[in-house]
């Protein structure tokens, strides 16, 4: 008989907001009333199914000495080394049959038990409440053998009144947590399934006549600058009088009764904004309790197509953020989260969408304090119903109405005091239906001061803000026409999975051109890789399938701008550069500074300039830029520069913080701009050009050219003492996840010149590249000419059964100790796929460890991701030139190389110098593995031992795009087969020795 048939466990499948002595939802308050922290060591026992749980465990006298120990908060699947099961990852799909509200018999059930001693004075008066901040997915709670409630809503707070069950001295609390419940159907977010009590458990002593709930609505009239503080209290009549004090504002009021609307005029106040997060501390107190609220005065309005805060249009430079840690899962660690939020601020992010549930409450405190616009999203997602055409979707099923409403209540009531929250979001990907409408209606009544957001409502029935995810810029522009008079955002865009997203700047330009577009939220902040280890102990970050799940969504859980361990990916720098609120534009006529902050002039910034010739500073100074108010711009003349020296001249201007702020040290660079000032050719006095040397056949059937040796096919064997093998042209790059996934249509199947919008659906780029055989091209030598001035080869590259080919001509010359390569690549007619790259591939000894270059940097850059790159001299360890993505893939390309030098102990230095051909120079990638090795590995630890350093000199590379979840590389950034050429000089220098 199925375990779920037992009446005793029917509650698991009950469609209910929760039961027992539930306390009405109320604000998260900083109160002086006593609390008892129940986190720490609990006794723990896991059962494979709900029906097997020991009925006697709730008995206070039960002997749990044989049980294991577990720490609360935690997820049991991240404890116990697999004894207690493992995490599992699915995105949209449910990991159990779509059979609502039923759940599988195999329903892991964890009994948590602990004893606590009640502080002796707590029974003298008042009430005792038991609070759960997060528990996945359902908990049945007993105190001293009495069932006190069933807690539902994994990421929502629930409080139970246990006054009648708590007793003097020792108490026994038992929480039976079931991994699956009816609630799992409405908690189908794209994340790991992680059961357990993962947020705090707290016992609260509520004084008689206490201030159970306090809501401070702090409004500021943008026209007058005057603030109004509306105080709403939930407390018994005997709680009055209540005093409200804000010494900073000279506010001192006494509220005598509950009936009056307590709107207090506080006079002129400074506004709160994400840029200038001005908080005021307000103390609300009566004889029984003192509550402290940090409030911020601001007005949020939707007026026509404008979403205004304090009368100014918002520009959201946002990110979707989950509560996630690679070791602790959804357990919140405030210091670590604070660090992450500082990193966000330092990258010009100003907004967070709490995808897809209310975060730990402290996140919102930090957002108030550091300054972020927040869309607070409800714990709701029923995405898996989409698979079945939304049949039976709880969102439109009246049986679920109370569950939906309760979730909205608990989010809004808990978080309502936060100035950072500028919208309430009903949830994510839950289709449409009356229950969503009911949530929206309730929220609007309860809090008219904030708009309602819900992306899935494409006909604007329950929303105040039009929202889309992963729309192309063309679709967004179309929305400005089809949804006139409404503000529009992208609640998810530029999917940060693997290498990418490219194309961020195209979105930014589109937002700039259409005021109704208020910006968006990157998907997402962090990879959700879970730190684990292989059988032999090699640590790695796991994704779907790595814990043996048979039904999973692979690496789709790793799609952040920072890796699971918090390491920023290049996209973070690109995003920061693109969305910078301080736009510095350099032109021959002067510098323009455009202050696009919401608040605050540029008086906090120093505009430093440096004049570089061939990447070396020759002069520097500070520009005199008068403070520019938010929304304004100004211009200033360029500094007077001596442009006479031979070389490439650049002017670089940085806007840096003059003083430290709560989120960055003094000197932190907010934005950088560059202006090329031209190239001054050296005078005629340069050394006479040495005559080239002839190429001659060598004894082994190959050729000698100066100190360079070639094999019989004209492939480079060595240069002096250095084996530098190959030098042949390749088209292959290890597909990025944007190359290999195809969640949306591609531009590339249609005529690139004509296609706008999404193009048509089709296979991924990687599939098409493989189909065209770009990973298995075969050479055929057409000509090899050793001549008096060098060696010329011409060969065709083509794949089996393919009529398309490319012709490669390589001309090698040797003179004055330097090997020169001119390479021309021409496609035949008939190509119908893009190329990943056109690269000259050189294999060098493994000992090269350091690279320094004059070119673009410091980070990688590609055709559609190059705003963060500047031209200059940089250096980095070879190991740091590529990115350790959860799935190995192409990374580390840097365009427009001038000079590169590789060094390693015991090796001669190896340098590459380029000269422009038709204005273009090749880019480069230096990596410990080849494109083929990157392609074959599914995790970094699966890469083979490195056999050498691979240098790719890329005549061209395809853009990155965002097609893992969003649009493909745009036509203008795609590498369509076309003739490309490069000229490079190689020089092998002296051997580097440790002793110098
Ligand atoms: C969208 C989800 O809202 C988000 O949770 C995440 O899954 C993201 O995609 C992709 O990583 S839904 C998608 C089907 C557009």
Automatic annotation (TrEMBL):
Family statement: Belongs to the glycosyl hydrolase 2 family.
Reactions listed under catalytic activity: Hydrolysis of terminal non-reducing beta-D-galactose residues in beta-D-galactosides
GO biological process: lactose catabolic process
Protein name: beta-galactosidase
Coiled-coil region(s): none
Matches recorded under SMART domains: Bgal_small_N
InterPro entries documented for this protein: B-gal_small/dom_5, Bact_Beta-galactosidase, Beta-gal/glucu_dom_sf, Gal_mutarotase_sf_dom, Galactose-bd-like_sf, GH, GH-type_carb-bd, Glyco_hydro_2
Keywords: Glycosidase, Hydrolase
SUPFAM superfamilies the UniProt entry points to: (Trans)glycosidases, beta-Galactosidase/glucuronidase domain, Galactose mutarotase-like, Galactose-binding domain-like
GO function terms (MF aspect): beta-galactosidase activity; carbohydrate binding
Signal peptide: none
Domain Beta galactosidase small chain/: 704-987
GO terms for cellular component: beta-galactosidase complex
PROSITE patterns: GLYCOSYL_HYDROL_F2_1
Enzyme Commission code: 3.2.1.23
Pfam families: Bgal_small_N, Glyco_hydro_2_C, Glyco_hydro_2_N, LacZ_4
Organism: Propioniciclava sinopodophylli
